[in-house]
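Record 1 of the preview.
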Amino acid sequence: MGRRKVANQKKGALAGLSVPQSAGLLSFRVIDPVGEPLVQAQYTLNDTQGRKVVAGKTDPYGWGVVVVPVGEYRMSVSADGFAAHLGRASVREGGAPVALGDLTLHAAPTLPLPEPGDWEIEAAHTRIGFTARHIGLGRVYGGFGNFAGAIRVGSTMEHTAMHVVIDAASIDTNVKMRDNHLRSGDFLDVENFPTLEFYSDRFVHRGGQNWVITGGLTLHGVTRTVTLDAQYNGVRVGMEGETRAAIHATTELHREDYDINWQTMLARNIAVVGSNIKVDLDIQAVPKGTELEFK
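->
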């Protein structure tokens, strides 16, 4: 297959780089409003049909350099705490690199925080879910149906605290036999450890609507520090005139960290149940004492 060197780059960093005849080279640098490079900014190029062609992250200097087929592209660039950049790029025949130059991302607007005071998790519109690997092939999805939580919003987020209690026996993966096994001494051992508890330690703003919540999770009688990657979704008025605040958060746990070591191996040392458990939370909270007819 015919290949060509990038034109006019004999003395530059791209000297000697070859691209296919049907492709071109696209480069850009992602910076913040004061001109500093944004490291690990995420970029995606889609074709005119909306299909993703390439995606990646910027290097330690904020640069992204890709070789893509000749054509028209829609481009998006994002980074934590910054509003996304949306644009277009054209890659033409002829071998000349396409340099988009500096793409500046501006700080994302922040949503108003909840009013200081005592809030409580509204269970009817909250989901505590998890995903586990099954025999190295697929995933098992589950959640907990019985839980309660309180959030004390301080005058600043540094003075905010959260406490959540989960009924371990309420685990549900939609398979009765599997759920009974998960409640047994091989896993959660609900007879000896009836609850899971989370106490927050601190809330850290990462910019925009992105936050990090750290705290202690007690599971199976063991307490470990966990970090929640959270996205704050703001405050709204609900259907009954109530005030609601919403947040989505994720984290990953390792069973062995909590002394849950049950394991059965298949051929080729494939575990029946994977070690890593992905946790996905959708939380809505209302001021403490809010009376709701529809729950």
